[in-house]
Design brief:
Strand order of the largest sheet of chain B: 1-2-6-5-4-3-7-8-9
Number of helices of chain A: 19
Radius of gyration of chain B: 23 Å
Largest interface: A-B, 47 and 40 residues
Strand content of chain A: 15-25%
Largest sheet of chain A: 5 strands, parallel
Radius of gyration of chain A: 28 Å
Structural class of chain A: alpha/beta
Oligomer: heterodimer
Helix content of chain A: 25-40%
Distance between the termini of chain A: 83 Å
Strand order of the largest sheet of chain A: 11-12-15-10-16
């Protein structure tokens, strides 16, 4: 026997998608050596040491021959430790220590510890789904990832705790149980952050409700400590629950980013990146490209606290994704399309010291205030629909009764969303209305004259005109009205974000 | 009408000021603002000797050697013209001042020089760091006075000055007096305002084109503003404000002084309130200015807005009581967020309130009927 070849199927994570990788291990005579080829990254190359130790510590023999592991296709860059298990199994097969008859119909992922135990890896959900689509009979995953893999549906799942179990599997001594799929919760449910915690702040509550009902974006301006962050973190709780397919999408992204634990409460994600975040951190990037906060906030809420402190280039980068719902990252030799349909909430202080112009304690120089506020009309802020100015709540308000609960607001929001879907089509909201659809909004006489008045006073630009109509449509949907009335138009005019004069 | 003219000597004087600017800066900044107009009273020789004794002779010779053609060419290149104290079009008001500039270098419509008589001119000055209230008042004053045929003069600075100019441009024309060359838009962010004034009004300075701004040039500019108008109105000024220098200079020239009252607990209005306590004319609107300047009798058309229903009147009162945000109004009147929003938007559409880009509401000067 000159050389023996064995292959195993595995997957490499690429952004949030799984790419199939075939591991070919060749064992032949020669000086003892173990090399891994096929564009492995550092973590994959180090698999050699892990596989060697795991094999020995599980009672297998590490062949003292010349071993080459090739990861095909050779042109795809492979990243992460998830290929350890496949390399080990292929090596065992090639060195005739294992005869797993089903191997060609299996896919294997998992990281090996030196003692042979199998450690969890990110992205198992995406991998299991990719395996199902390729007609793989069963996927072998780390036991901890079993419930996640089971979410993929029509595919067998074998949860492995140790490499030693592979031998038991081959000999038929052990028949694994299919793990229960992990529960996917469509909303955060009771007990999470609730809008009732927001006391007073009637206008902000109303702005949040309209924002949620129309899928708009919101800018909250107010002094520090007035409740901006508190309100933003309550927005997911008043949005309609996810549908099952959306929840799966959210889980897939969280899993690929290794954040499934954080997403465990379920429901819509809420991401609040710090203002020092880089453009790559916000929309995704790096080489190979990784998803950013915008993608992690997919189907949920992205909260930018201290909007004026964010790096300008980071905000610029967020502009196109906000409009299209996709991030496109092009790198030499690779191209990624990451989903990011999120609702944007931003918060800012009214001036650098945070007290606001009218406060006699505010000591900001006029130029400084101007520069600060100019950042509120940047390219990203131009895409924000709603402005809510808030103030420090009074002692009575803070000590007063709790506000309306999330559940009650969510009912109205869901009803408004249903009206929109009936009019615009499934999954669409007023914020996404095309200019053509905006023209079709039905206005009654009072609303039309009020809008024309405001427009004539040059207080509205053309773009603001459409924005007001979208908002007015949402206000009307919340009120359950077929046409936009005068009252609703007035409310939309008040809610709109102002441009710098 | 022929172009205004300036004799070479007067133009050389303005060049001398530009040459000596850094030296004057060193001498004049000991006591902020106060000394520069006194220095400017001096003849060219004594001025040079006073601020830069070592190089006085050299600078004087250098300025004297500038050929006449060069002086004219520089003006032309900057699209400016000049009018010196020997020209008949030189503003009458400046002749009263001992330290008046020898020449005014201007950009814009020279025909406005004719209208620049103290009797028909009001100078509006105030804080750069102005409140929404001050801005609104300045803008309204600028607009109403201009509409009543008065020429509004100000200094193109941030805050009150810019608002007064903008208001005046809404209704007609305006005059800006700069502390730098007339062709220099300073502050730079007012470039578009400066350009609009150049096109529709008049920008003047005593410094030659291209001169930058120094600390001493602002009080020096203030003395020109004070002298040009029969009345100087201070809109918002803190205790140690440059606007008070203008007020002092105006009082020294025997001009009328007016001030707009501000909140007594606001530091930003302390200076203006003190002027009032000291006997300045109380200015609530353009009518008060007209009464003071032209005597009672000239009435502005009363500007009152449309009728308001009780709910809107209540919301308007809430804004007047200092309810800045929609939320504050809602809390004061115990309305829901939606009701308060609708009331405020209606008031804004009717012109009773205005809203800043950070969502802060302030009252405009539009009077509610029957209130």
């Amino acid at each position: 026997m000159v050389s023996v070849l064995a292959t195993a199927q595995t997957f490499s994570l690429d952004g949030i998608a799984a790419r199939p990788v075939r591991v070919e291990v060749d064992v032949h005579r020669g000086l003892p050596a173990f090399s891994v080829v096929g564009l492995p990254d550092a973590a994959v190359r180090e698999a050699r040491e892990r596989v060697r130790a795991a094999l020995v510590n599980c009672g297998f023999e590490f062949p003292l021959r010349r071993i080459v592991a090739n990861l095909a296709p050779a042109s795809l860059r492979k990243a992460g430790p998830g290929m350890d298990l496949a390399i080990a199994v292929a090596l065992l097969t090639a060195s005739a220590q294992l005869d797993l008859e089903r191997l060609p119909r299996l896919a294997l992922v998992g990281e090996l510890a030196l003692d042979g135990s199998v450690r969890p890896v990110p992205g198992v959900l995406a991998i299991a789904e990719a395996a199902r689509e390729r007609g793989v009979e069963a996927i072998v995953v780390p036991a901890e990832n079993g419930p996640e893999a089971a979410l993929a549906g029509e595919i067998g799942v074998i949860g492995l705790e140790s490499l030693a179990q592979v031998a038991a599997l081959a000999s038929g001594d052990w028949a694994p149980q299919r793990p229960q799929p992990m529960p996917l919760r469509l909303s955060r449910g009771e007990g999470g952050p609730d809008l009732a915690d927001l006391r007073g702040q009637r206008h902000l509550r109303y702005a949040l409700e309209v924002t949620a009902a129309g899928g708009h974006s919101l800018l909250v301006v107010g002094p520090p400590g007035a409740g901006k962050s508190l309100a933003a973190s309550r927005l997911p709780s008043i949005l309609p629950p996810l549908v099952a397919a959306e929840a799966l999408e959210v889980a897939r992204i969280a899993s690929a980013c290794g954040r499934l634990d954080e997403a465990a409460p379920g429901g819509r994600p809420f991401r609040a990146p710090h203002h020092t975040v880089s453009p790559a951190g916000l929309v995704g990037g790096g080489n190979p490209p990784n998803p950013g906060e915008a993608t992690l906030a997919h189907r949920g809420v992205l909260f930018l606290d201290e909007l004026c402190e964010f790096r300008r280039d980071a905000l610029e980068a967020l502009r196109a994704p906000l409009e299209t719902g996709w991030v496109a990252i092009a790198r030499a030799g690779s191209w990624r399309h990451l989903p990011c349909r999120f609702m944007l909430i931003a918060a800012a202080n009214p001036c650098p010291c945070g007290r606001g112009d009218a406060d006699p304690e505010c000591s900001c120089a006029p130029q400084a205030v101007r520069r600060y506020q100019a950042r509120l009309s940047g390219a990203l802020a131009d895409r924000i629909d709603v402005l809510a100015a808030i103030r420090q709540p009074s002692a009575e308000e803070i000590g007063g009764p709790p506000g309306e609960s999330s559940a009650a607001v969510r009912l109205r929001v869901s009803a408004a969303r249903e009206r929109q879907e009936r009019r615009l089509g499934p999954g669409r909201s007023n914020a996404e209305m095309t200019p053509g659809e905006v023209r079709e909004c039905a206005l009654d006489e009072g609303a039309a004259s009020l809008l024309a008045d405001s427009y004539a006073r040059r207080r509205l630009s053309g773009r603001a005109h459409d924005r007001v109509l979208r908002l007015a449509q949402t206000v009307a949907d919340l009120a359950g009205s077929e046409t936009i009335g005068r009252e609703q138009m007035a409310q939309a005019l008040q809610l709109r974000r102002r441009d710098q004069e | 009408m022929s172009e205004p003219r300036a004799c070479p000597d007067c133009l050389r004087r303005s060049r001398l000021l530009a040459h000596l600017a850094p030296y004057i800066e060193r001498v004049a900044t000991g006591a902020p603002g106060s000394r520069s107009p006194e220095l400017l009273r001096l003849s060219s020789e004594s001025l040079a000797a006073a601020v830069a004794p070592k190089i006085a002779g050299q600078v004087l010779a250098q300025v004297a050697a500038v050929p006449e053609a060069r002086l004219a060419a520089d003006l032309l290149a900057a699209q400016c013209w000049a009018c010196c104290r020997h020209d008949s079009r030189y503003p009458v008001g400046l002749r009263d001042a001992a330290d008046a500039p020898w020449a005014l270098i201007g950009r814009g419509d020279p025909a406005l020089l004719e209208r620049l008589e103290p009797e028909g001119t009001v100078t509006v000055v105030g804080a750069r760091r102005a409140s929404a209230y001050g801005r609104e008042v300045a803008r309204e004053l600028g607009r109403e006075l201009t509409a009543a045929g008065i020429l509004v003069v100000s200094g193109l600075a941030f805050g009150i000055d810019a608002c007064a100019h903008r208001g005046a441009l809404d209704a007609g024309t305006t005059v800006a007096v700069l502390g730098c060359g007339a062709d220099v838009a300073y502050p730079a962010s007012h470039r578009s305002l400066w350009r609009r004034i150049c096109e529709r009004g008049l920008v003047v300075s005593e410094l030659p084109p291209g001169t930058g701004a120094w600390r001493w040039t602002f009080p020096a500019r203030n003395r020109i503003m004070a002298a040009l108008a029969a009345m100087t109105v201070v809109v918002e000024a803190a205790q140690r404000s440059g606007s008070l220098i203008t007020a002092d200079l105006a009082a020294d020239l025997g001009r009328d002084l007016g001030a707009v009252p501000g909140p007594v607990n606001s530091r930003g209005s302390a200076g203006a309130n003190e002027l009032l306590a000291g006997g300045a004319c109380l200015v609530r609107d353009a009518q008060d200015v007209l009464d003071a300047m032209l005597g009672p009798g000239v009435r502005l058309a009363e500007r009152a807005g449309p009728e308001l229903e009780p709910k809107l009147l209540a919301a308007l009162a809430a804004v007047e009581r200092g309810g800045e945000t929609c939320d504050a109004v809602a809390a004061q009147l115990d309305l829901s967020g939606a009701e308060a929003a609708s009331a405020l938007a209606t008031l804004e559409a009717l012109g009773y309130v205005s809203c800043s880009m950070v969502g802060a509401y302030s009252r405009t000067l539009l009077r509610a009927p029957g209130v």
